[in-house]
Amino acid sequence: MRIPLDPPPYTDLLETLFQNRLTPVIVFLPSRRGCDEAVDSFRSGRLGDLPMDHQDRIEDLVDGFDDEAEFIRQHRQFSLMLKRGVAAHHAGQLPAWKHVVEKAMSAGLLRAVFATSTLAAGIDMPARSVVITASSQRSDEGHRDIKAFELAQMTGRAGRRGRDKVGFAVFIPGPFQDINVIVERLLSPPEPLESSFSANYTMVLNLLQQLSPEAARELVERSFRQFQNLKLVEKLRPRVARAKAVLDADAKDCPAGDRSKTFAAYQTITRELGSARKQVKRLRRFTAETIGFSPEAAELHLNDLERAQRALERYETNAGTFACSTCPQSRTCAPRAAEMTRQWEEYETLAKRLAAIENGLWDRFEDCVEVLRHYDYLTEDWRPTQLGEWAARLRVENTLFVAELLREGYFNVPDGRHLAALCGALAAEDREFPMSDDATREDYLRPLRKARGIAHAIATVQERHDIYCPMYIDYDAARLLWTWADGEHEWEALLERTEAVEGDVVRLILRTSDLLGQLSGLSDTHPELAIRARAAIRLIRRPPVED
To answer: What is the pTM of this model?
Structure first.
């Protein structure tokens, strides 16, 4: 049963936990905005300030970040962290801010951290208590119920080693809280691990540089993903066999063999036969009515009648070739035929899924090979060409796209700033970075038109081989990197020109830096590009943008 109650104000929640000695606490919220709004709610309320020694120690932590200290103190939540001991932690914030929050929480200097559920994985920031506000999570497919392992990760943050004998997990009511889901997940074992391994262009090129196609296939088929697939095959194969057995048994009972297809075809011919008989009957009546009044009209009807009778004879002959025309089951066959049609659909679906699971990994590998051969990165016997050898050194999501851009001169720009902008356009993923108008944008954005044409051509080839690899080209992301790489814009001035949150801007710059790092590694084959790439990295990797 979903509890239709609004959650209590976070100021009241934290005060209650504080009075009962259940702080510090991590409050897990579904969204970044929710975390920030929760912290902002502490600008008013009865919660007193932190002790001065706690505030001094937080200041010392900030001082330890050298170049980033100024940006941390400019954060709109800094005063709340320093005075009230509350802070938000999520992907929309600067790395330096998140590091300070983690260190302050681990040192016991904060009362509460409001975080998204991703904090629960991979960060050592335990608390005495955790508060969970929702039993559902947002995903690419919309909202879904929380998984057992996600709940275990969140509740596992409760209790500090060496300081607490027990940790506390508090579940508060709210519109997205279903206590039945929580209880079920608490009592359930963690979901099994699922491998996301799949062939891609970089893997194919690197494997075929060192292994024969036969050895590469053996390696792919020894993967954990293939092991999991074989487990699924063991479950699917009996279902496929049972569905086929039902069809085979019916085929023995039906004189036509394939009941569903034969009955459907016979139904079609009988409908056509019925229509032909009605046409002949109608034309005979019209001919008889016109003989005494208009010999010319009667002659026309007689010609039509002859053609209709010949058509009727053809339909009667075709119908006679079906076993259904003499089968005693034909009058009661419709329900059984419909059942067999459904059975065929189930069998074909299961058989197709079985084949995809059994051979899917290697089929995907072969599809990547065919696309790479189309673009001359592999020879006919699957050996990397000279192009394939340097393309194999690119560790990016879509190696082929970046390699083709490189071949077509997309990166041939005069300086590091231009290169940073062009790489930024490719690093945007599915985030949006709306920028204010820029009157000079046409000059440095012109190469993006070429990139769009290359992406379209690759997508056409990939579609023939049932491959999808995302190829992002974001004009606004390029404009953002162009602005940041001029070396003159301050961080706050940059953020004023975009609606994107600073954490997403940092991620874009770091992803751009990573792509530039890949290009800088091609110094032996593309020395000038490598020099420009290193220069571009120096332009964009400046405070507060750090890992």
So the answer is: 0.74
